[in-house]
Amino acid sequence: MRIILFGPPGVGKGTHAKLLSAKLNIPHISTGDMLRKAVAAETELGKKAKAVMDAGQLVSDEIMIGIMRDVLTSEKTKNGFILDGFPRTLPQAEALTHLLNELRMQLNTVVNMEISEREIVDRLGKRLTCRKCGKIYNLNIDKLSNPTKCPNCGGELYQRDDDKPETVLKRLRVYNESTAPVKNYYKNLDLLQNVNASGRIEDINNAILAMLTHR
After folding, report:
1. Contact 1, 24 (CB under 8 A)
2. Is 160 a known active-site residue?
3. 43, 119, 107: which is closest to 77 by C-alpha?
4. Which residue, among 38, 99, 88, 32, has the nearest Cα to 65 in the 3D structure?
5. Pairing state between β 81-84 and 2-6
6. Torsion of Cα atoms, 159 then 161 then 166 then 171, to 10°
7. Which among 2, 37, 149, 171 is annotated as catalytic?
8. Which of 64, 75, 88, 212 qualifies as a FRET site for 34, CA 20 to 30 Å off?
9. Would you say the pTM of this structure is higher than 0.90?
């Protein structure tokens, strides 16, 4: 099973990717984790990515596809994968298709997780991040006894600037502009399936699973 999880920031892609990974026994591949691992391993592409990120610039599609190639040709993805956070643009989607064709891998489905802007603003507005360990909590879900202290490591919890309402709305505008062509691309390939990502996590995950088994 080879799946792409698609959706705006705050929709729950990471949460659902982890649940699906455990249920389907295939790895969850997050773009952020992938980059960090390549940098930590000091691979050739990892070094290039680090230089770009240290300069405060976005990692190029060429580097991202190169790192994606390394991941998709590794032993861990031989039985499938769940991609989270990639592709974000039409050129990335086209490059990924070319790479999968080259590796003789077939994408099963692209799950487009849909939710209202208002709910995203509300969700991200309730999100707190630990300065020490980086763990993310949601005030609605995690029922923290102390909303200033991380229960994992004791570090300080804070709201990131990009989780504030005005910034979230800007992020959503950028997301919609860059990803609308990607959704159309996968729709034309008859791979796009929409799921309502509002409601209980378990119900949404079961809806995605049902969608995958009927594919």
Report:
1. yes
2. yes
3. 107
4. 99
5. parallel
6. -110
7. 171
8. 212
9. no
What are 19-76's pLDDT values in tens digits?
999 999 999 998 878 888 888 888 888 898 888 877 777 788 898 899 899 899 999 9
Encoded amino acid at 15, one letter: T
The catalytic residue among 23, 132, 160, 215 is: 160
User: What is the DSSP code string of 91-145?
Assistant: HHHHHHHHHHHHTT----EEEEEE--HHHHHHHHHTEEEETTT--EEEHHHH--S
How far apart CA 131 and CA 31 sit, in angstroms, is: 21
Q: Is-catalytic flag, 127?
A: yes
Q: Which whole-number Å values give the CA distances from 115 to 10, 16, 66, in the listed order?
A: 9, 14, 32
SS3 helix, strand, coil % of the chain, rounded to 5?
55, 15, 30
- Give the class (CATH, top level) of 2-213: alpha beta
Active-site residue, from 36, 37, 88, 183: 88
